[in-house]
Amino acid sequence: ELAQLNLLAGEKAKAANAYSSALEYFQAGLSLLPKNSWQTLYELSFALYGGLIVCHYLRGSRAQAQYLCD
Questions:
Q1: What is the reported pLDDT for 35?
Q2: Which DSSP helix (H) or strand (E) runs through 38?
Q3: Cβ–Cβ < 8 Å for 6, 32
Q4: What Cα–Cα distance (Å) separates residue 51 from each residue in 13, 19, 28?
Q5: How close are the terminal C-alpha atoms of the chain, in Å?
Q6: Cβ–Cβ under 8 Å, residues 14 and 33
Q7: What digits encode the pLDDT tens for the residues 23-67?
Q8: DSSP string, 1-26
Q9: What does the DSSP 8-state code read for residue 35?
Q10: Which of 59, 55, 15, 7 is nearest to 31 (CA)?
Q11: What is the spatial distance between Cα 24 and Cα 29, in angstroms, rounded to a whole number?
Q12: Helix, strand, coil percent content, the chain, rounded in steps of 5
């Protein structure tokens, strides 16, 4: 699945401290998920949102990270 590949690419980019690239991968993965992904693809949804939140935080966008947590 393409969303899963975006998750893997985002994780690799995050590990290389390429947070901007990682954000793009996580966002791309999220955009591919169906609206009911929290019910049907919970683990993937959780991982993509988690990566997105962590990258926002590490880039200094703490307000955006907090917004996504709420």
A1: 95
A2: helix 37-40
A3: yes
A4: 10, 10, 12
A5: 27
A6: no
A7: 999 999 999 999 999 999 999 999 999 999 999 999 999 999 999
A8: -HHHHHHHHHHHHHHTT-HHHHHHHH
A9: T
A10: 7
A11: 9
A12: 80, 0, 20
Give me the pLDDT at residue 51, please.
Answer: 97
The encoded tokens of residue 2 equal: 């393409």
Q: So what's the pLDDT on residue 10?
A: 98
Q: What are phi and psi for residue 63, nearest 5 degrees?
A: -65, -40
Q: Which two tokens stand for residue 65?
A: 């990270």
In the block, residue with structure tokens 């990682």: 22
R_g of the chain computed on alpha carbons: 11
Tracing tokens 């993509």 back to the chain, one arrives at: 48
Q: Per the confidence metrics, is the pTM higher than 0.85?
A: yes
Q: CA-CA distance, 33 to 61, in Å (whole number)?
A: 24
